[in-house]
Each structure stands twice: as C-alpha cells, then as structure tokens.
Amino acid sequence: MSEYINMDTLRFQLFEVHGLAGVLEHARFSEIDLESVDLLLDSVKDFSDAELYPCFREMDEQPAHYKDGGIVVHPQVKTFMQQSAELGLIGSGFDFEDGGLQLPEMVSQATSYIMEAANNNATGYVLLTSGAAGLIVSFGSQELKDTYVPKMLSGEWGGTMCLTEPQAGSSLSDIVTSATPKEDGSYRIKGHKIFISGGDHEYCDNFVHLVLARIDGAPAGTRGISLFAVPKHRITEGGGLHPNDVRTEADYQKMGQKGYCTTHLVFGEDEDCYGWLVGEPHKGLSYMFQMMNEARIAVGRGATSIACAAYHASLQYAKERPQGRKIQQSGQKDASQDQTLIINHPDVRRMLLLQKAIYEGSLSLVLQAAQYADMAHVSTGAEKDRYQHLLEILTPVAKTYPAEKGRTSVDNGLQVLGGYGFCNDFVLQQYYRDIRIYAIYEGTTGIQSLDLLGRKMQMKGGQALKWLMEEIQETLEQAMTHESLRPYAGQLGQRLKQAEHVLNHLMGVAKTGNFELFLSDATLFMEMMGTLLVSWQWLKMAAVAQEALLTGNGSQTQEAYRQTIHTMRFFFTYELPRVGGLVEILQNQEQLTLSEGLVEIA
Amino acid sequence: MSEYINMDTLRFQLFEVHGLAGVLEHARFSEIDLESVDLLLDSVKDFSDAELYPCFREMDEQPAHYKDGGIVVHPQVKTFMQQSAELGLIGSGFDFEDGGLQLPEMVSQATSYIMEAANNNATGYVLLTSGAAGLIVSFGSQELKDTYVPKMLSGEWGGTMCLTEPQAGSSLSDIVTSATPKEDGSYRIKGHKIFISGGDHEYCDNFVHLVLARIDGAPAGTRGISLFAVPKHRITEGGGLHPNDVRTEADYQKMGQKGYCTTHLVFGEDEDCYGWLVGEPHKGLSYMFQMMNEARIAVGRGATSIACAAYHASLQYAKERPQGRKIQQSGQKDASQDQTLIINHPDVRRMLLLQKAIYEGSLSLVLQAAQYADMAHVSTGAEKDRYQHLLEILTPVAKTYPAEKGRTSVDNGLQVLGGYGFCNDFVLQQYYRDIRIYAIYEGTTGIQSLDLLGRKMQMKGGQALKWLMEEIQETLEQAMTHESLRPYAGQLGQRLKQAEHVLNHLMGVAKTGNFELFLSDATLFMEMMGTLLVSWQWLKMAAVAQEALLTGNGSQTQEAYRQTIHTMRFFFTYELPRVGGLVEILQNQEQLTLSEGLVEIA
After folding, report:
1. In sequence order, what are the beta bridge partners of A208?
2. Of B343, B584, B595, which has the smallest distance from its Cβ to A344's Cβ?
3. DSSP of A237-269, one letter per residue?
4. Would you call B455 an interface residue with chain A, using a CB distance cutoff of 8 Å?
5. Does any CB of chain B come closer than 8 Å to the CB of residue A515?
6. Residue B85 — pLDDT band, cuts 50, 70, 90?
7. List B51, B116, B404, B442, catalytic entry
C-alpha cells in the first residue's frame, strides 16, 4: 500500500515539540498516559489502513448523490461510523460522564489527522457528528443530552451544523429560518439550509441538525439568532422515530470531496418540523461559534492532512521515476549514462521540500492551537484567560495557512508527477481537487482575515497579541542557545519587527475611522502572519531537534532530526523572505480596492 | 449568454498597445488592413458564441474516452474542424501559396484567444492540426506538402505532434521509437507515444502524426532524433486510404480539459507502419522545436484565455450577488440596511483586480511575443536577428507566466464565488481544473525555467538580454514623459537593477562550474522575471492609455483607459513588490536542494 502519512513526524510533533506529557500531567487526563496515546495512534492508523484508505479513490469515482428523496453515499460510511464509535473517536474529548474518553484536544487532532490523511472524503461524517454532539453537551438541557448524545456517540445517529441559507452565505445576520414557539415548549422550524455537509444518508437511523434560526419577533442581525436541535426524525413517546418534516432537497455536485455529501435541507415545509432550543434564546451564534472555532482548527488540520498525503504520494513517485540526467561539471549531460531518479533534480527536491515545509509547519501550528485549547481547559483564572486568548488569536491562522498554502503544497506535488499528475491514474489530481474547499469551509480566507486583523489583533486591548509575542520570544530565546540556529532566530526576530511596523501603520489607518481601508488588505496581512507563525513553529521544531541531536535523548533517529533542521532552513530560506514583499504591499497608500470614487471594474 | 471575453480589451492591446498597423505596413501583409482584421475578429467571436461556448460545459461532462479501438469525442468537434477551416483559421499564418491567409502571428493569436476563451477543450483539435501542417510546410518535401497539407487545412485530416514516450517524459534524449529505412525511401516506424493530444477521433478521416523517432544506427541522445510524418492511414496509389498500423491504445482520463482527448498511440505493432522523413535525418528535434516554440506561446495564450473567461464569470457573479454590508464609520455594520453586492467589498475587488491584472498582463506578453515573431518574419539581416532573439528570450516567460499566474487568477475567481465556486453548478471549477495542465504542456515550468536561466539569458553572449532591456528601457522612457506614470517607471527601473544583481550573482556561481547550483532555483528566477516582464507590459499599456486620455485620439472609452491605468497601479502595488522577496531568495547561499552530501527527504 502507498504511504499517506509519516507517523514518526506526527509523534515527534505531539510528544517532543508540543509536549503532550506536560498536558497529560493535569488531573483531567489522569487516566491517560503516553503509552496509551501511542497505542491509540497505532489503532487509528491500523483502522485507517484497513477501512479508510482503500476506499478513498472509490468515494471520488462514485460521488455522493441525490436519489429518491435521500442521499446515496459510499457504503463504507456505515463501517466507518460504527468502527469510529467503537474506537471512541466520536466525542473522544468529551468528559467521561458525557460518554467521552476525556482525551486531550491534541490527541483528538492527531487521530483525526491520521484518518483524514487516509481519506478526507469520509472523516467529516464522524467529525461533524462529534461537533454537533459537543454543542448539545455544552449548551443543551439534560433532556436534550439524554435524548440525542448517546445515539450520536454510538454512530447510530449523525449530526450536522446548519448555518448557511441561499440568500445569506457568509452573512449570518441575514438568516431567515424561523422558529415559532409552540405550547409544548418546542418550536416550529421553517426554512432552507444549504451546503449542509453530511446532511443525509442511509447509514444513520437519524440525524440531529444543529440549526440557526430566528425566534418570531427576535431582533434583526446576529443578535436575534438562536440555536435549535432539529432531528430528521423526532422521538415518539414510545421511543420510536417519527418523520420530522425535514426534507432533503438536493446534493450539491462538486469538483472535489465528492464522497462527502453536501446537502440542501428544507425544514418545515408542511409546518410539522419540531426544534428544541439549545441554551438561551438569541445566543445561538455565540454557541455555534464554539463549534465553529473548533471546526476552524479542524479545517486547518484537514487541509494539512491532504497536503501530507499528497506529499507522500509525490515523494514516492520521485523516488521511483527515472528521468533525465544530472548536469555535469562541463555544463552538459551525458546521454550514455542511465537516467537518474527525479528526486535527484534540484527543482524536484525544491518542490518536495516546499511541500514538507508547508505541511509539517501547518501540522505544528494546528497542534499548537490544540495545546492551547487543552491548557485553557485544564487551567484556571489568569492562566486560563491567557491560553484561551492564545487559542483565539491563533485560530484564524491555523485555519487559513494550511488551507491556502496546503493548496500550494498539493499543487507542487502534482507538478512533481508532470503529465501523470493531471491524470486520473494517479491520486494527486484528487488531492488537488479535494483541498480546494478548505479555503471556503467555515468562513472563507477573506472572513478569517477580517477576524484576524479586525478583531483578534486588538482583542483584550492588544493583550492577546502580546501573549502570542511572548510565546514566540520564548522560542527565539531557546533557539538562540544553539549557535547553529542563532541566524534563523535573528531573521525571524527582524521580520517580526517589520510586521509590527505594518500593524502600527494599519492601526493608524483604523484611528482615522476609515475601517474599510484599514481592513481592505486583511487577506495579505493574513498571508504575512501565517508565514511568520509557521516560521516560529519551524524554529521551535528545529530547536527541539537540535537539542535532541546534542543530548541523544530524543525518540527519533538522528537522520530525522537532521531532516527537521534542514526543512526549517528551507522554510527560512525560501518562504520567510516573501514576507518582505508583503510588508511593502501592506503599507501602500494607494487605496486601489475601495469602491468609492474609483473606476469601475470591467 | 454569459460573457467570456472583453473584445475591447483585446482590440486595445492588438491595435493600440502592440501596434498591429505597424506590422501590417510590411509587404507580406499588403492584402490585409485593420478593417479586415476587425471583421475577422468579429466573425471569430460570432463563431465562438454560436459553436464553441455553448458546448463547453458539455465537453467536460461527457469526457473524451476510448471505445472499441478509437476515441469518442464530442460531436461538435466535427463542426468545429469544418467551420474553422472555412474561416481559414487552420494555417491562417501560412503563405498564400501554401494555402494560408498569410495573416500576422498577432492576428492568429488573437483569433485563437477568442476561441479558447469560449472553449479551451475544443481549440486544440484545430490548433495542433495547424502546427503539424506548419512543420510539413517548413521542412517537408514538396511531395509531403502536396500529400498532406491541403487535407489538413480543409479540416478533413487532423494533425498531432508525437514526442513523449512512457520511459522518456520530459527527457527527449531517451526516445526509443525506431525508424528503419525501407527500399522505397520510406521508413518502418515502431514505438509507443503517450499524451498525444487530439490523437484520434471519428470526425477526421485521417490523422497526420509528426513523430520523433530514431533511425537505426543514429547517435545516442537528442542528436540522433529525426522527424517523420506518419499518417493513421497511408494513401494508396488510387488515392484511397489504407490503415497504416497506427493503433489507438487508450485515452488518458484527466482532471480537466476532459473534452480534449489525450491518447496513447502504438506505431508499427504489426511491422506495417510507414513513416516519411521530414527534412534531413537527425535534425528532427530542431524542426520540432519550431512547432514547440510556437506551441509554447500558444500554451501561454491558452492559459491566458482561461484566466480571461474565469475572470468574466467571477465578475458577473460579483456584480449580481448581494451579500453582507459595508462597514460604517462607526466600525459596525447596519443589519437593517439592504445587503450590498459583493463587488463592493474591498477583498472581492482585490481578487477581481488581481485576476484582471494577471490575465490582461499575460495577454500583453503573449501579443508582444507574437509581434516579435511577425517582425522577425518580415525583416532581414541584423533586424531579423534582433527580433528573432527577442522572441526566443521571451518565449519561456510567455509560456510560463500565464500558466503559473493564470492558475492564481482562476483560483481567485473561484474564491469570489465562495462555496458556489466549488460546485458543478458554476463554471469556475471547470476553469480551475482545465488550467492546471498548462504548467505541464510543452515542457513543464521547471523545464522552461532551465531554458530561461540556463540558455536564454546567455544567448548570443548576452546580447538577446541586452536587446530585451533596450525594449523595456524604451517603455520606461515613454512612461517618464507622463508625470503620473513616473513613479511607476521608477519602481520598475529599480526592480530591474535588483534583478541584474541577482543575475550577476548567479553567473558568478556558473563561473565556478557548479552548474547544478547555478540552475537549482531557476523556477524562482522565472517567477521574478515573469513579474518584471508583465510589469513592463502594464507600464506600456498605461503609457498608451495615458497618451490616449491626453490626446483623446484612442478608440476606447475614457473609462476604459482609466481602468487600464488603475489596473497597472494595482499590479505595481500588489504584485511587483513580491519581486523583493524573490531577489533575496535567489541570492541565498544555502544549497538546500542539491542532493550531494545532504540529508535524505522523507
């Protein structure tokens, strides 16, 4: 079988770079030790090898589709839901009392990463169920929990999140799905929801949709949105299932991730759709944002997993494919020589190293966010506040960098194969198509960038950013203790100063009250920040690797540590300098993209 | 019907920026005037509207495929071949005596561009036939010309170029297809050719394959390759067609351009495949490179046409789709306001302007190359030499920039549509898939970059580069005459100096004899040069637009000229500064991608 992941790389990051052991020391995780995590990772890898990877291509070739009022998906989805549940992977981070394994977020990210690298078309069915159940656990009444969560964690029922409506798209304040109070305390739900991932199929007996809707008379905008649990079938008094007037209208046919259905659901067409309020009225969006924030990290992780799998596919090809010859000292090639493997061509090595630098850097960023989530979970008071803010400031970047640069990474993987990369005989073209959605899922890159520059940079009066800079400073100091890493720490420090200038410049614009101008290049600000934060992660990895090379105490091979340092150098040499151009662009005074007083675009 | 092209933009570039009138002044084109070109462009647009655009989506949804020993393609291919022939578009640049219209290359590029913007899945069938016929016209005997060319120009017979073999890929020196001399002066051809675009279908009675093969006993490497005309059916003495032992083995199924077949052909399996030598033995590669060089410009143009069509599709969406609200002076949005059209969001405008800047800049680069080709054709002596070299130095960039940045452009177009961009209901996803092959066609970006840095920069002892710099200098001086353009001319001048430093640095490496290191970052050198040369084109366009605004003499609207200047400013503000990062990267001393003495990649 082709390899789609390097488990050693994952373990290095989890255990050595991000110090899972330090997280496990906390009482919440007293039932778990490193050994059990190790065993779990192996089990998930075995499961992925056996059940997920083999049907990955097939799920693309036999897309999910609408038929007779329902959605036909690959039959392996059934096995996948069941076995994920048996492994405890649905709600793995939930408290024991809620039926979870009480695993750290870092470990849940790692297991999901393995599964997604094997088959990104399949994992969403489980992960969305997990996320929907999580919302009920966090904000729902005990009755809602008892009614829905056990069946979701057992994989018998699926879960979804229903935000988008045809007229609203990214603009959630324009949601019009209505919720009319009924005498029994439930609500009558009515409206259309589109782009609902995993919204229907025959392998779950029921679906629990977490639906954003507006209670009659609620205020306009996002302050009038409430959250409802709306099952496909409601539970009768006898415990049976009764259709709840949730009709599946269609399945969007897409360029990629074809095995993962994307449905259009119609609620309450016959005025018979019951929904149950989750938490308090009008607070739906803030609840949904818990799921959304987790989902954003998950999107970053998912994109990373595709870049990882694509890297390994192109690496394998490069190691097997002979073509061309190396150039001689004479400047000529010797046609009488045997052809060389393409991995020996510098341009191919560059493309491979770029992929490796992007996907491993992305993974590290995602695990960093997960570590903050875990630390926020187990700590209290000021410490909790600090970790919570670190997580929040990192979230839009951990979503966006892997989605944007992951695309570059996969694109380079395809290019390594030349014409074959474009052909269906090889898997690269599927990764190329699949990954494209990640820059759109859960808020486009534009939306994430507005969040980063417009909200996160000033969060808590700029304190969140200060905390983040402290974290980076710590890595810089650690790297400075190694002579060989000092130049790289110096480079990153210098770039961070440039970024500070940029931010000051932009804040100056914000102070003039021209917020549209202030935010107009937010996407480029995101590009700059993403590269800087991944540089930070690479320096962190290199410092750990260098330390391990010196002490001989690490669990990886010496060669693996040298590779890590080599890839850090690659990132700093080939990616970090691009920040210079962005710094310049972000300080432009041209106002070319504002609509007022400017020429039309035609 | 959706619009896929802006004819005014094309006319502006053709007539005003690149001065077609100046080309038409030469005796070769005495039968053509601007008015007749104008009429031709309109005819081709009408033809494209009627016959090409309507079946574009369908050709994707019903891919070309192998069946019963042949390839099934969309039936519209028949109409397309016939009507293209009727319009004189097959071999439109050929001399009158060879059955052509003796049109300038600039005009042929423009007509192909219109057709490709309408349907990039269809045009290859005609254009390859044209290229193959061109090879026979240039290098074949009168007998070969008489036998094949008329039927090709009438669209009854198709033509292909057969280079790639399974074991050789980009490495043409490893071609093993054999040609054994026969007593009648023909050759017995035997071998496999793969990735043969337009290689077989039922809508041509015959195909003339231009095949690279090795005559028995020929020297190893590229110096032993000859060119043969190998028909699918050979012509009997009675003038009929007799099968020539060319078997269609398969059709590659691909991620994009699904309507354009990509075949695997087997020649001489039954020892009964006749080929006829084109030109002299062992000179095949140099002949093929005539077609290849033209094909490279054509690839750049094709990628540009897709970026153009994608731009117009996303522009239309942005002008029709309401979503979200503009941010107020308060920093808040007012949910009670109506939603605004997304074209009013700065991030969307940025994505649209980026697309426009890339595709129009690409088009200008392609037309610049075509203009050099025309001037080389009509001039003599030193002048011819100069234009020929200008064409050659521009060719790898005119192929690569549109292919690479065109992908970025289409990617931004897809992003404008958000989730809908990923769905089959909208065309963006098709453009996204279709354009991916252009960075691979006719020599990958890596190959083009080696050509640019390793050959073209030093061509004629560096004289070609000097000529190119003179051309750019002329534009800088022209721009300097306009106060408002002076800053931009200054910026480009400064960046060109930086690029000169880079080249000097790299030439220093070459002088040490470490050619592998010298060329290791050629792809990044290409990225830098592409941005610089497109900046040059934008400045050229802006200078023409500024002049027209001043004099009122141009044929476009004032608004159109202002848009041109605005888009130039966008390119200089958002793209040109990225050169700074590349300049730094290209001067790195790290040697991270050479294989000797380095860590493995795993």
Report:
1. A159, A231
2. B595
3. TTS-EEE-SEEEEEE--BSS-TTS-EEEEEE-T
4. no
5. yes
6. very high
7. B442
Provide the angle, in degrees to the nearest 10, between the axes of the packed helices A522-551 and A381-416. Answer: 90
Entry field: residues in chain A:
602
The CA distance from A57 to A473, in Å, is 44
Instruction: Compute the distance between CA of residue A288 and CA of residue A267 in angstroms, rounded to an integer.
Output: 19
- The count of residues in chain B is 602
pLDDT, tens digit, 9 for 90 and up, residues A357-374: 999 999 999 999 999 999
Task: Please answer yes or no on whether B327 and A577 come within 8 Å at the CB atom.
Answer: no
Q: With CA atoms as reference, report the closest residue to A398 among A295, A547, A290, A259.
A: A295
Question: What is the pLDDT averaged over residues B560-568?
Answer: 97
Which residue is catalytic, options A392, A442, A527, A575? A442
CB contact under 8 A, A573 and B585: yes
State which H helix or E strand residue B228 sits in: strand B226-231
Q: How close does chain A come to B146, measured CA to CA in Å?
A: 35
Q: Which residue of A has its CA nearest to B197?
A: A419
Per mean pLDDT, which range of B211-225, B298-312, B318-332, B477-491 is the poorest?
A: B318-332
Q: Would you call A592 and B256 a contact, using CB atoms and an 8 Å cutoff?
A: no
Number of H helices, E strands in chain A: 19, 12
Q: What is the DSSP letter of B119?
A: -
Return the structure tokens found at A431.
Answer: 């990764």
What tokens were used for A368? 């960093």
Tell whether A169 is within 8 A of chain B (Cβ).
yes
Q: What would the 3-class secondary structure string for A69-89 be?
A: CEEECCCHHHHHHHHHHHCCC
CA distance A56 to chain B (A): 16
For A526, the token pair is 């995101």
- Whether B349 and A578 lie within 8 Å, measured CB to CB: no
Which of A:212-251 have CB within 8 Å of B?
A: 220-222
Per residue, what are the HEC states of B463-501?
HHHHHHHHHHHHHHHHHHCCHHHHHHHHHHHHHHHHHHH
Query: A471 to chain B, minimum CA–CA distance in Å?
Result: 26
Q: What is the pLDDT of residues A345-357, one digit of tens each?
A: 999 999 999 999 9
Q: Under a CB-based contact definition with an 8 Å cutoff, are residues A197 and A251 in contact?
A: no
Between CA A335 and CA A326 the distance in angstroms is 10
Residues 6+ apart with CB under 8 A from B578: A578, A581, A582, A585, B531
For residue B165, what are the CA distances in angstroms to B181, B190, B192, B265, B289? 21, 12, 6, 10, 17
Closest Cβ–Cβ partner in A173, A566, A585 for B599: A566
* Nearest CA distance, A515 vs chain B (angstrom): 6
| B442 belongs to the catalytic site | yes
Q: Which residues of B touch A355 (CB under 8 A)?
A: none
Tokens read off for B185: 């002066």
User: Looking at residue B173, what is its pLDDT?
Assistant: 85
Q: Which amino acid is at A353?
A: L
Q: Which residues of A touch B435 (CB under 8 A)?
A: none
Distances in Å between the Cα of B240 and the Cα atoms of A107, A287, A387 are 72, 77, 82
Which of A218, A244, A211 minimizes the C-alpha distance to A135?
A: A211
**Interface contact flag, B425 A164, Cβ < 8 Å:** no
Outline where A12-89 has alpha helix (H).
20-24, 34-47, 56-61, 76-86
CB A499 within 8 A of CB A579: yes
- Asked if A437 has any chain B CB less than 8 Å from its own CB, the reply is yes
Rounded to a whole number of angstroms, the distance from the CA of A430 to the nearest CA of chain B is 8
A595 falls in which pLDDT band (50, 70, 90)? confident
Residue A214 is encoded by which pair of tokens?
Answer: 């507006």
User: Cβ–Cβ of B563/A601 closer than 8 Å?
Assistant: yes
In A, minimum Cα distance to B257 occurs at: A422
